[in-house]
Amino acid sequence: MAGHPGRVTPGRVTLHDVAAAAGVSKSTVSRILDERLPQSDSETARRVRRVAADLGYIRDVSAASLRRGKTMTIGVIVPRLTDTAMAMLYEALTKACARSGRFAIVATTDDRPKADRMAAETLLRRGVDGLVLSTARQDDDFPNDLTQRGVPHVLALRTDGRSLSSVGDDMLGGYLATRHLLDLGHRHIGLIAGPSYASSARGRVQGYRQALVEAGVAQDPAYVVESTFGIESGAEAALALMRLNPRPTAIFAVNDNTAIGALSALTRLGCTVPGDVSLVGYNDIPIVGHLPTPLTTLRVPFDQIASVALDLLTEEPAAVIDKIRVSAPTLIPRRSTAPLSPRGR
């Protein structure tokens, strides 16, 4: 049945929907919205672009690929490249792409949902074959929006629990970090917990709690301090933990950046690591093994996560059985953790 002018059928907005709403032919809409052609400033062109924007039209990447051939480019959206873990993910994705003749293009969004949408639209307009996003948030349903529009995409490092995802086993990592500190005799273990909107942070918190329960150690909510993933936030969280009575004798930080911030704050307080406080990070970014006190941390297999993400993105959807694929981290003990000293008992 032909669509009624101005009426859009539910689901992904198509060229036909835009044409019907603008009162022009589908071929006219296709020509006006083709970024490869010079932009027309006619009244019709302005109306078509306005209608397309109002309807939320995004070019169908998969359909365009069938018509024109794949561009062999992948769009990668990360919060920021100053976060070394995100830079390592992007580098791992570029290597995985290169092995299959593809090329990765990155956009950063400072972990802002509106910026995620703008970045995705910009990358799609440039003809990428699909998106890899490390910006999934509990409080935002952007991946579902992409699904409704038919945009191929995969989540990496963070998941919404529904979309195709390649992530680390964050619950296992949080458990291993906390179990390591428990095995060293620590019982007052502070947690710099990261932001609750990120599945990676929530998983590490769950692992921390599971280890305490198994060891029969009472959980004190005051020992769990939410933070961002940044260095300054890690320092602030460590200062808050060290104001507690009793003070923690060990701290598990949600990532290496917050651990570096915690180390700085502890140094300013005159505390030694690990003499006064043992410290564990997460991700094993390159610098932490070369600090004056090398950091105990969890090594995340970024290369494996990236390869799996690209496999998920390029597989036929019907062939995907496990939508969320998990890669295990590895505990890397270094000199920032030590047995509980007698003065800490």
Automatic annotation (TrEMBL):
InterPro entries: HTH_LacI, LacI/GalR-like_sensor, Lambda_DNA-bd_dom_sf, Peripla_BP_I. Pfam families: LacI, Peripla_BP_3. This is LacI family transcriptional regulator. GO terms for molecular function: DNA-binding transcription factor activity; transcription cis-regulatory region binding. The keyword DNA-binding applies. The keyword Transcription applies. Residues 13-68 form the HTH lacI-type domain. It comes from the Bacteria. It comes from Nitrospirillum amazonense. Keywords: DNA-binding, Transcription, Transcription regulation.
